[in-house]
Protein backbone atom coordinates (compact mmCIF):
# COMPACT_ATOMS: atom_id res chain seq x y z
CA UNK A 1 0.00 0.00 0.00
CA UNK A 2 1.29 3.46 -0.91
CA UNK A 3 2.12 5.64 2.07
CA UNK A 4 -0.07 8.78 2.02
CA UNK A 5 1.84 12.00 1.33
CA UNK A 6 1.79 14.11 4.48
CA UNK A 7 3.43 17.37 5.45
CA UNK A 8 4.73 18.08 8.93
CA UNK A 9 3.88 21.76 9.24
CA UNK A 10 4.90 23.51 12.44
CA UNK A 11 3.34 26.76 13.61
CA UNK A 12 5.88 29.18 15.06
CA UNK A 13 4.98 32.40 16.91
CA UNK A 14 7.29 35.12 18.20
CA UNK A 15 7.17 38.88 18.67
CA UNK A 16 3.63 39.21 17.41
CA UNK A 17 4.39 37.29 14.21
CA UNK A 18 3.47 33.74 13.25
CA UNK A 19 4.87 31.42 10.61
CA UNK A 20 4.31 28.01 9.10
CA UNK A 21 7.44 25.91 8.84
CA UNK A 22 8.41 22.69 7.09
CA UNK A 23 11.79 21.73 8.53
CA UNK A 24 14.20 19.72 6.38
CA UNK A 25 17.94 19.48 7.04
CA UNK A 26 18.77 17.23 4.08
CA UNK A 27 20.44 20.21 2.38
CA UNK A 28 21.79 23.30 4.23
CA UNK A 29 19.42 25.78 2.54
CA UNK A 30 16.74 27.99 4.10
CA UNK A 31 13.90 29.73 2.28
CA UNK A 32 11.61 32.35 3.79
CA UNK A 33 8.55 33.92 2.19
CA UNK A 34 6.40 36.65 3.66
CA UNK A 35 3.59 38.84 2.47
CA UNK A 36 0.83 41.30 3.18
CA UNK A 37 -2.61 41.88 1.74
CA UNK A 38 -2.89 45.07 -0.27
CA UNK A 39 -0.63 45.15 -3.31
CA UNK A 40 -1.20 47.26 -6.40
CA UNK A 41 -4.83 47.70 -5.35
CA UNK A 42 -3.57 50.32 -2.89
CA UNK A 43 -2.01 52.45 -5.65
CA UNK A 44 -4.07 55.54 -6.52
CA UNK A 45 -5.26 55.31 -10.13
CA UNK A 46 -3.06 58.24 -11.18
CA UNK A 47 -0.02 56.51 -9.66
CA UNK A 48 -0.52 53.05 -11.16
CA UNK A 49 2.65 50.98 -10.94
CA UNK A 50 4.07 52.82 -7.91
CA UNK A 51 4.24 49.74 -5.71
CA UNK A 52 5.57 47.53 -8.50
CA UNK A 53 8.38 50.03 -9.09
CA UNK A 54 8.98 50.20 -5.35
CA UNK A 55 9.30 46.41 -5.19
CA UNK A 56 11.92 46.48 -7.94
CA UNK A 57 13.82 49.28 -6.19
CA UNK A 58 14.11 47.55 -2.80
CA UNK A 59 17.12 45.55 -4.01
CA UNK A 60 18.67 48.57 -5.77
CA UNK A 61 20.39 49.84 -2.65
CA UNK A 62 19.44 50.30 0.99
CA UNK A 63 20.84 52.14 4.00
CA UNK A 64 24.56 52.81 3.49
CA UNK A 65 24.77 50.40 0.51
CA UNK A 66 24.25 51.72 -3.01
CA UNK A 67 22.98 49.38 -5.71
CA UNK A 68 26.40 47.94 -6.50
CA UNK A 69 27.36 47.40 -2.86
CA UNK A 70 23.97 45.83 -2.11
CA UNK A 71 24.24 43.46 -5.08
CA UNK A 72 27.80 42.56 -4.03
CA UNK A 73 26.65 41.78 -0.48
CA UNK A 74 23.98 39.42 -1.80
CA UNK A 75 26.33 37.75 -4.25
CA UNK A 76 29.21 37.34 -1.82
CA UNK A 77 26.97 35.47 0.63
CA UNK A 78 25.10 33.53 -2.07
CA UNK A 79 21.75 35.08 -1.07
CA UNK A 80 18.67 35.27 -3.24
CA UNK A 81 16.37 38.14 -2.29
CA UNK A 82 13.35 39.53 -4.13
CA UNK A 83 10.11 41.44 -3.75
CA UNK A 84 6.96 41.40 -5.84
CA UNK A 85 3.82 43.53 -5.99
CA UNK A 86 0.71 41.66 -7.04
CA UNK A 87 -2.83 42.86 -7.71
CA UNK A 88 -3.95 42.05 -4.17
CA UNK A 89 -0.78 41.53 -2.17
CA UNK A 90 2.92 42.16 -1.72
CA UNK A 91 5.54 39.46 -1.16
CA UNK A 92 9.16 39.17 -0.18
CA UNK A 93 11.33 36.09 -0.29
CA UNK A 94 14.87 35.05 0.47
CA UNK A 95 16.95 31.92 0.01
CA UNK A 96 20.33 31.36 1.60
CA UNK A 97 22.71 28.73 2.82
CA UNK A 98 22.22 28.09 6.51
CA UNK A 99 25.43 29.95 7.60
CA UNK A 100 24.31 33.05 5.63
CA UNK A 101 20.79 33.20 7.06
CA UNK A 102 21.46 36.02 9.51
CA UNK A 103 23.07 38.12 6.78
CA UNK A 104 20.14 37.42 4.47
CA UNK A 105 17.68 38.53 7.15
CA UNK A 106 19.76 41.66 7.83
CA UNK A 107 19.82 42.66 4.17
CA UNK A 108 16.10 41.93 3.70
CA UNK A 109 15.26 44.07 6.72
CA UNK A 110 17.55 46.86 5.53
CA UNK A 111 15.91 46.82 2.10
CA UNK A 112 12.41 47.13 3.57
CA UNK A 113 13.30 49.58 6.33
CA UNK A 114 15.72 51.93 4.53
CA UNK A 115 15.35 51.78 0.73
CA UNK A 116 17.56 54.40 -0.93
CA UNK A 117 15.64 55.11 -4.15
CA UNK A 118 18.66 56.84 -5.64
CA UNK A 119 17.92 58.97 -8.69
CA UNK A 120 19.95 56.72 -10.98
CA UNK A 121 18.18 53.61 -9.74
CA UNK A 122 14.74 55.19 -10.10
CA UNK A 123 15.56 56.28 -13.65
CA UNK A 124 16.85 52.81 -14.57
CA UNK A 125 13.87 50.95 -13.09
CA UNK A 126 11.41 53.45 -14.57
CA UNK A 127 12.91 53.03 -18.05
CA UNK A 128 12.64 49.26 -17.76
CA UNK A 129 9.03 49.45 -16.51
CA UNK A 130 7.98 51.88 -19.26
CA UNK A 131 9.61 49.69 -21.90
CA UNK A 132 7.75 46.66 -20.55
CA UNK A 133 4.41 48.49 -20.50
CA UNK A 134 4.98 49.75 -24.04
CA UNK A 135 5.98 46.29 -25.28
CA UNK A 136 2.73 44.84 -23.90
CA UNK A 137 0.75 47.18 -26.09
CA UNK A 138 2.59 45.93 -29.18
CA UNK A 139 1.27 42.37 -28.93
CA UNK A 140 -2.25 40.96 -29.12
CA UNK A 141 -1.64 39.05 -25.89
CA UNK A 142 -0.79 42.21 -23.97
CA UNK A 143 -3.71 44.11 -25.45
CA UNK A 144 -6.25 41.40 -24.72
CA UNK A 145 -5.17 41.06 -21.10
CA UNK A 146 -5.59 44.75 -20.43
CA UNK A 147 -8.97 44.85 -22.20
CA UNK A 148 -10.36 41.77 -20.43
CA UNK A 149 -9.60 42.88 -16.87
CA UNK A 150 -10.67 46.48 -17.50
CA UNK A 151 -14.04 45.26 -18.79
CA UNK A 152 -14.52 42.68 -16.04
CA UNK A 153 -13.76 45.12 -13.20
CA UNK A 154 -14.19 48.63 -14.63
CA UNK A 155 -14.55 50.40 -11.26
CA UNK A 156 -12.01 48.41 -9.22
CA UNK A 157 -8.19 48.31 -9.09
CA UNK A 158 -8.35 44.69 -10.30
CA UNK A 159 -9.19 46.15 -13.69
CA UNK A 160 -5.94 48.12 -13.88
CA UNK A 161 -2.50 46.80 -14.91
CA UNK A 162 -0.55 45.78 -11.82
CA UNK A 163 2.67 47.28 -13.18
CA UNK A 164 1.08 50.53 -14.34
CA UNK A 165 0.78 52.04 -17.80
CA UNK A 166 3.19 54.00 -19.95
CA UNK A 167 1.38 57.18 -18.90
CA UNK A 168 1.34 56.60 -15.14
CA UNK A 169 4.90 55.25 -15.04
CA UNK A 170 6.35 58.10 -17.11
CA UNK A 171 4.98 60.75 -14.76
CA UNK A 172 5.27 58.82 -11.50
CA UNK A 173 6.91 61.01 -8.82
CA UNK A 174 9.39 59.52 -6.38
CA UNK A 175 7.11 60.56 -3.54
CA UNK A 176 4.40 58.23 -4.86
CA UNK A 177 6.83 55.29 -4.82
CA UNK A 178 7.88 56.04 -1.25
CA UNK A 179 4.24 56.45 -0.22
CA UNK A 180 3.34 53.12 -1.79
CA UNK A 181 6.12 51.32 0.08
CA UNK A 182 5.20 53.08 3.33
CA UNK A 183 1.58 51.96 3.01
CA UNK A 184 2.57 48.35 2.33
CA UNK A 185 5.68 47.55 4.36
CA UNK A 186 4.35 47.40 7.90
CA UNK A 187 5.28 45.57 11.07
CA UNK A 188 1.76 44.15 11.36
CA UNK A 189 -0.51 42.13 9.11
CA UNK A 190 2.33 40.06 7.68
CA UNK A 191 2.14 36.33 6.97
CA UNK A 192 5.32 34.23 7.07
CA UNK A 193 6.30 30.81 5.76
CA UNK A 194 9.63 28.99 5.95
CA UNK A 195 11.18 25.78 4.69
CA UNK A 196 14.51 24.03 4.82
CA UNK A 197 17.36 23.75 7.29
CA UNK A 198 15.92 25.86 10.07
CA UNK A 199 14.39 24.81 13.38
CA UNK A 200 11.33 26.33 15.00
CA UNK A 201 13.54 27.96 17.62
CA UNK A 202 15.79 29.50 14.96
CA UNK A 203 12.80 30.78 13.01
CA UNK A 204 11.40 32.35 16.19
CA UNK A 205 14.75 34.11 16.65
CA UNK A 206 15.02 35.58 13.13
CA UNK A 207 11.39 36.61 12.60
CA UNK A 208 11.52 39.72 14.79
CA UNK A 209 14.80 40.75 13.15
CA UNK A 210 13.24 40.48 9.69
CA UNK A 211 10.56 43.08 10.46
CA UNK A 212 12.39 45.19 13.05
CA UNK A 213 11.98 48.92 12.54
CA UNK A 214 9.03 48.78 10.16
CA UNK A 215 6.11 51.11 10.98
CA UNK A 216 3.56 49.71 13.40
CA UNK A 217 0.16 48.55 12.22
CA UNK A 218 -1.00 46.71 9.13
CA UNK A 219 -1.49 47.95 5.55
CA UNK A 220 -4.91 49.35 4.66
CA UNK A 221 -7.45 46.81 3.44
CA UNK A 222 -8.09 47.13 -0.32
CA UNK A 223 -11.62 47.49 -1.57
CA UNK A 224 -13.36 44.10 -1.84
CA UNK A 225 -13.68 42.61 -5.28
CA UNK A 226 -17.07 43.47 -6.81
CA UNK A 227 -19.04 40.97 -8.90
CA UNK A 228 -17.53 40.07 -12.26
CA UNK A 229 -19.03 42.29 -14.97
CA UNK A 230 -20.29 40.11 -17.82
CA UNK A 231 -19.32 42.16 -20.88
CA UNK A 232 -20.20 39.76 -23.67
CA UNK A 233 -17.71 40.14 -26.50
CA UNK A 234 -15.04 42.82 -26.82
CA UNK A 235 -12.74 43.23 -29.82
CA UNK A 236 -9.54 45.29 -29.71
CA UNK A 237 -8.20 46.08 -33.17
CA UNK A 238 -4.55 44.98 -33.45
CA UNK A 239 -2.84 44.60 -36.86
CA UNK A 240 -1.67 41.00 -36.54
CA UNK A 241 -2.23 37.75 -38.47
CA UNK A 242 -3.43 36.01 -35.29
CA UNK A 243 -5.87 37.01 -32.58
CA UNK A 244 -5.30 36.50 -28.88
CA UNK A 245 -8.40 35.39 -26.98
CA UNK A 246 -9.14 35.70 -23.27
CA UNK A 247 -12.42 34.39 -21.90
CA UNK A 248 -13.83 34.12 -18.42
CA UNK A 249 -16.66 34.27 -15.95
CA UNK A 250 -17.21 34.44 -12.18
CA UNK A 251 -15.77 31.60 -10.11
CA UNK A 252 -16.09 30.66 -6.45
CA UNK A 253 -14.61 32.09 -3.25
CA UNK A 254 -11.52 30.20 -2.13
CA UNK A 255 -13.35 29.23 1.07
CA UNK A 256 -16.28 27.67 -0.81
CA UNK A 257 -16.77 23.98 0.08
CA UNK A 258 -17.02 23.19 -3.65
CA UNK A 259 -13.60 24.68 -4.41
CA UNK A 260 -11.87 21.35 -5.08
CA UNK A 261 -14.82 19.95 -7.02
CA UNK A 262 -14.65 23.08 -9.20
CA UNK A 263 -10.94 22.43 -9.81
CA UNK A 264 -11.74 18.90 -10.95
CA UNK A 265 -14.45 20.17 -13.30
CA UNK A 266 -12.11 22.75 -14.82
CA UNK A 267 -9.28 20.27 -15.19
CA UNK A 268 -11.51 17.94 -17.19
CA UNK A 269 -12.92 20.79 -19.26
CA UNK A 270 -9.86 22.94 -19.90
CA UNK A 271 -6.88 22.31 -17.63
CA UNK A 272 -5.56 18.86 -18.46
CA UNK A 273 -3.45 19.57 -21.53
CA UNK A 274 -4.24 17.09 -24.31
CA UNK A 275 -6.59 15.20 -21.98
CA UNK A 276 -8.97 18.17 -21.59
CA UNK A 277 -12.19 18.42 -23.54
CA UNK A 278 -11.36 21.84 -24.96
CA UNK A 279 -7.96 20.73 -26.21
CA UNK A 280 -9.49 17.65 -27.81
CA UNK A 281 -12.28 19.60 -29.51
CA UNK A 282 -10.32 22.70 -30.52
CA UNK A 283 -6.89 21.34 -31.43
CA UNK A 284 -6.97 17.58 -31.88
CA UNK A 285 -10.24 17.24 -33.78
CA UNK A 286 -10.27 20.53 -35.70
CA UNK A 287 -6.77 22.03 -35.61
CA UNK A 288 -8.17 25.45 -34.79
CA UNK A 289 -5.49 26.53 -32.30
CA UNK A 290 -2.17 25.31 -30.98
CA UNK A 291 -3.44 25.37 -27.40
CA UNK A 292 -6.36 26.36 -25.19
CA UNK A 293 -6.86 26.15 -21.45
CA UNK A 294 -8.63 27.65 -18.46
CA UNK A 295 -8.46 27.60 -14.68
CA UNK A 296 -9.25 29.48 -11.50
CA UNK A 297 -7.35 32.72 -10.86
CA UNK A 298 -7.54 33.96 -7.25
CA UNK A 299 -8.03 37.69 -6.63
CA UNK A 300 -8.92 39.20 -3.26
CA UNK A 301 -10.02 35.79 -1.99
CA UNK A 302 -12.33 35.20 -4.96
CA UNK A 303 -11.85 32.72 -7.78
CA UNK A 304 -12.28 33.91 -11.35
CA UNK A 305 -12.50 31.40 -14.20
CA UNK A 306 -10.09 32.59 -16.90
CA UNK A 307 -9.05 30.87 -20.12
CA UNK A 308 -6.97 31.76 -23.14
CA UNK A 309 -6.13 30.77 -26.68
CA UNK A 310 -4.74 32.23 -29.88
CA UNK A 311 -5.55 31.43 -33.47
CA UNK A 312 -5.60 32.75 -37.03
CA UNK A 313 -8.02 35.63 -37.49
CA UNK A 314 -10.13 33.52 -39.88
CA UNK A 315 -10.58 30.79 -37.25
CA UNK A 316 -11.58 32.89 -34.23
CA UNK A 317 -15.35 32.54 -34.76
CA UNK A 318 -15.21 28.75 -35.02
CA UNK A 319 -12.83 28.47 -32.05
CA UNK A 320 -15.24 30.44 -29.89
CA UNK A 321 -18.25 28.45 -31.10
CA UNK A 322 -16.56 25.16 -30.21
CA UNK A 323 -15.44 26.56 -26.84
CA UNK A 324 -18.95 27.66 -25.95
CA UNK A 325 -20.38 24.31 -27.01
CA UNK A 326 -17.94 22.40 -24.76
CA UNK A 327 -18.61 24.87 -21.94
CA UNK A 328 -22.34 24.22 -22.26
CA UNK A 329 -21.90 20.44 -22.48
CA UNK A 330 -19.88 20.37 -19.27
CA UNK A 331 -22.37 22.66 -17.54
CA UNK A 332 -25.19 20.30 -18.48
CA UNK A 333 -23.61 16.86 -18.06
CA UNK A 334 -20.56 17.28 -15.82
CA UNK A 335 -17.54 14.96 -16.03
CA UNK A 336 -17.87 11.26 -16.77
CA UNK A 337 -16.84 8.79 -14.08
CA UNK A 338 -13.64 8.00 -15.98
CA UNK A 339 -12.80 11.70 -16.36
CA UNK A 340 -13.44 12.27 -12.66
CA UNK A 341 -11.14 9.41 -11.67
CA UNK A 342 -8.37 10.57 -14.02
CA UNK A 343 -8.55 14.16 -12.72
CA UNK A 344 -8.50 13.07 -9.08
CA UNK A 345 -5.57 10.72 -9.76
CA UNK A 346 -3.61 13.56 -11.32
CA UNK A 347 -4.39 16.12 -8.62
CA UNK A 348 -3.51 13.72 -5.79
CA UNK A 349 -0.44 12.31 -7.51
CA UNK A 350 0.88 15.71 -8.53
CA UNK A 351 0.81 17.13 -4.99
CA UNK A 352 4.33 15.99 -3.96
CA UNK A 353 5.81 17.78 -6.98
CA UNK A 354 4.90 21.10 -5.37
CA UNK A 355 7.32 20.30 -2.54
CA UNK A 356 10.56 19.53 -4.33
CA UNK A 357 12.68 22.42 -3.00
CA UNK A 358 12.56 24.85 -0.11
CA UNK A 359 11.69 27.89 -2.24
CA UNK A 360 8.60 26.24 -3.73
CA UNK A 361 7.59 24.90 -0.33
CA UNK A 362 7.78 28.30 1.35
CA UNK A 363 5.84 29.89 -1.51
CA UNK A 364 3.12 27.24 -1.34
CA UNK A 365 2.78 27.59 2.42
CA UNK A 366 2.45 31.36 2.08
CA UNK A 367 -0.25 30.96 -0.59
CA UNK A 368 -2.17 28.65 1.74
CA UNK A 369 -1.97 31.22 4.51
CA UNK A 370 -3.11 34.02 2.22
CA UNK A 371 -6.13 31.90 1.33
CA UNK A 372 -6.96 31.40 5.03
CA UNK A 373 -6.43 27.64 4.92
CA UNK A 374 -6.22 25.64 8.12
CA UNK A 375 -2.79 24.21 8.87
CA UNK A 376 -4.01 20.67 8.13
CA UNK A 377 -5.90 21.59 4.95
CA UNK A 378 -3.33 20.22 2.51
CA UNK A 379 -2.91 16.90 4.34
CA UNK A 380 -6.66 16.32 4.08
CA UNK A 381 -6.92 17.40 0.44
CA UNK A 382 -6.36 13.99 -1.16
CA UNK A 383 -9.08 12.42 0.97
CA UNK A 384 -11.50 15.19 0.01
CA UNK A 385 -10.70 14.72 -3.68
CA UNK A 386 -11.12 10.95 -3.55
CA UNK A 387 -14.48 11.40 -1.84
CA UNK A 388 -15.90 13.36 -4.80
CA UNK A 389 -18.67 11.64 -6.72
CA UNK A 390 -19.87 12.08 -10.27
CA UNK A 391 -23.17 13.40 -8.95
CA UNK A 392 -21.47 16.08 -6.90
CA UNK A 393 -19.07 17.22 -9.62
CA UNK A 394 -21.97 17.38 -12.07
CA UNK A 395 -23.90 19.57 -9.63
CA UNK A 396 -20.84 21.79 -9.19
CA UNK A 397 -20.39 22.05 -12.98
CA UNK A 398 -24.01 23.18 -13.26
CA UNK A 399 -23.49 25.68 -10.46
CA UNK A 400 -20.11 26.98 -11.64
CA UNK A 401 -20.28 27.18 -15.41
CA UNK A 402 -22.49 29.74 -17.09
CA UNK A 403 -22.15 29.56 -20.89
CA UNK A 404 -24.41 32.57 -21.39
CA UNK A 405 -22.25 34.65 -19.02
CA UNK A 406 -18.94 33.70 -20.64
CA UNK A 407 -17.23 36.97 -21.54
CA UNK A 408 -14.68 37.08 -24.35
CA UNK A 409 -12.02 39.64 -25.22
CA UNK A 410 -10.23 39.37 -28.56
CA UNK A 411 -7.20 41.33 -29.72
CA UNK A 412 -6.39 41.12 -33.41
CA UNK A 413 -8.46 41.30 -36.58
CA UNK A 414 -10.89 38.43 -36.06
CA UNK A 415 -13.20 37.53 -38.91
CA UNK A 416 -16.86 36.75 -38.46
CA UNK A 417 -17.29 37.95 -34.87
Short description:
The protein is α+β, with helices and mostly antiparallel strands and 417 residues long. The protein is built from 15 helices and 11 strands.
Q: Structural class of the helices, strands and pairings?
A: alpha+beta
Mean pLDDT: 95
- The general outline is globular
Strand content: 15-25%
Spatial order of the strands forming the largest sheet: 1-2-6-3-5-4
| CATH superfamily membership of the largest domain | Metalloenzyme, LuxS/M16 peptidase-like
Order of helices and strands: EEEHHEEHHHHHEHEEHHEEHHHHHE
Under CATH, the topology of the largest domain can be stated as: Cytochrome Bc1 Complex, Chain A, domain 1
The radius of gyration computed from the alpha-carbon positions, rounded to a whole number of angstroms, is: 23 Å
Distance linking N and C termini: 54 Å
Main CATH class of the largest domain: Alpha Beta
Helix content class: 40-55%
Number of helices: 15
Taking pLDDT < 50 over at least 5 consecutive residues as the criterion, the unreliable ranges are: none
**Largest sheet properties:** 6 strands, mixed
Q: Which architecture name of the largest domain does CATH use?
A: 2-Layer Sandwich
Number of domains: 2
Please identify the oligomeric state: single chain
- The count of β-strands is 11
Amino acid sequence: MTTPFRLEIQQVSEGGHSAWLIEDHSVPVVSLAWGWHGGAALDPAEHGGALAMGAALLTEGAGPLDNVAFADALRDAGIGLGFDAERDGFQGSLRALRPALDEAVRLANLAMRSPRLDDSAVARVRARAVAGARAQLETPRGQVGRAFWAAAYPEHPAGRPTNGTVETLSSLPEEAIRAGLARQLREGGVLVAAAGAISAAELARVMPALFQGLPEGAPPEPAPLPPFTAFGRLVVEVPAPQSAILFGQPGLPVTDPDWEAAQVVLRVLAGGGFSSRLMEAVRVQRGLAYGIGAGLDVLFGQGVVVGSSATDNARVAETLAVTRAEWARMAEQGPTQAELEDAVAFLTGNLPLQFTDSRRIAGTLLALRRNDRAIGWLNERSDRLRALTQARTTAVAQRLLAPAALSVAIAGRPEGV
